[in-house]
Write a structure and sequence with these properties.
The protein is built from 15 helices and no strands.
């Protein structure tokens, strides 16, 4: 970002870029909500929401936490794509308030009514969609209009979530639609930034084999992955769905091998992008196993590999890298970064094992939740000054 753009803004640092306010808010909310989640789930705390405790947890992770991170990323990336000034100051603060009001509305939806809660909650993704569309169109950056597709699906999934719970007594298909949208977003954006960051680092620090360029192989991978997830949304227990998920998993592992992440171990800040991406084929494989042998593998095993592993790991990796890059810090991992990244991966593994090992499952769930909370609250503490000071 040209320095002249920075000089034009004289307001609070936290409102100067989308990543500052939304990465910080998302990490705090993720950590705090997980701390509250288990007492709510066990009936020790009461939530005044029309959502059951499990549904509230799923909804707030996908449409509260993840939606805020996606917003922070896009509001920081889109100005680089379009060459336009970032959304900042009062407009950015207004969007944050809309997000925050949505969280309150969902928590107290039993008091204000599910329709009003749905309106307040869905207003955030609607405003983000409109803001991103305006910026991309105004900047004539047509090639990046495709980011609106997963955003559209995520918004529709949020509407469906409220409708399913309120009209049919529980959320069934909408969480799968939302998870599909977020994984598609990672495949789309991650498929661009993971090999790009890898190439940049290798070219400078470890000359030799570089990631393969985007080709027909990657296009086929993306198409197969999206198709397998669409089938999973509508036919999660079908053997055909399971077979396609396994095929997609194998193709994605092949894609990762083409990105030569094994050559980046000297800089873990690059390696973690590959590790996070690897959880996608792991999740697909576990979902396939839940279709083939449901008595041994629950669907939740695969969904948590995707949500806690792929989404949680990729979010932390990108938040750390983006924050460093946009605040003038060296793009290298620190001890604090290493700790919080390892915590989120351990959280994912414990969460996966808690669904496979029926004995001590609650203990494993508590450990996973604690590790997740420490990871994201650790990020907020580590990067508080970076977000709030110029």
């Amino acid at each position: 970002m040209p320095s002249s753009r920075k000089r034009d803004y004289e307001g609070p640092a936290i409102l100067s870029y989308g990543f500052r306010v939304f990465f910080l808010a998302a990490s705090l909310y993720s950590g705090i909500s997980i701390v509250l989640w288990l007492p709510i789930f066990q009936g020790l705390l009461e939530l005044n929401s029309v959502f059951a405790p499990v549904e509230w947890h799923i909804h707030e992770m996908l449409f509260g936490f993840v939606a805020a991170v996606i917003t922070g990323f896009l509001f920081t990336a889109v100005p680089n794509w379009t060459g336009r000034l970032p959304i900042r100051g009062l407009p950015l603060f207004a969007l944050f308030v809309i997000w925050f009001v949505g969280r309150i509305a969902v928590a107290y939806s039993d008091t204000i009514g599910w329709i009003l809660a749905m309106v307040f909650d869905c207003l955030f993704l609607t405003a983000i969609w409109i803001s991103i569309a305006i910026e991309i169109i105004a900047g004539k950056n047509w090639r990046n209009l495709k980011v609106l597709v997963p955003l559209t699906v995520l918004l529709l999934a949020n509407i469906c979530f409220h409708l399913e719970v309120s009209l049919y007594g529980g959320a069934d298909m909408s969480p799968r639609i939302a998870l599909m949208a977020v994984i598609a977003f990672i495949l789309l954006i991650g498929g661009r930034i993971v090999p790009s960051f890898t190439r940049n680092w290798l070219a400078k620090n470890n000359p030799g084999e570089l990631p393969k360029s985007f080709s027909t192989y990657e296009k086929v991978n993306l198409a197969v992955a999206v198709l397998s997830m669409i089938l999973w949304v509508f036919f999660p227990q079908s053997n055909i769905t399971g077979l396609l998920l396994l095929i997609s998993s194998a193709l994605l592992v092949g894609q990762l091998s083409r990105w030569v992440g094994y050559r980046t171990t000297q800089e873990p800040l690059v390696t973690v992008l590959h590790i996070s991406y690897l959880f996608i084929p792991i999740g697909f494989s576990l979902l396939a196993l839940s279709a083939f042998i449901p008595d041994m593998f629950l669907p939740v095993t695969g969904t948590h590999a995707l949500s806690a592993g792929a989404i949680g790991g990729m979010i932390l990796s990108v938040m750390i890298r983006a924050t460093k890059g946009h605040t003038g810090q060296a793009l290298t991992i620190t001890k604090a970064d290493n700790i919080i990244l390892n915590l989120v991966y351990l959280s994912a593994l414990f969460r996966i094992f808690s669904t496979v090992l029926h004995e001590n499952s609650m203990e494993l769930l508590h450990i996973s939740s604690a590790l997740w909370a420490f990871a994201f609250l650790g990020f907020a503490i580590t990067y508080w000054k970076s977000m709030t000071q110029k």
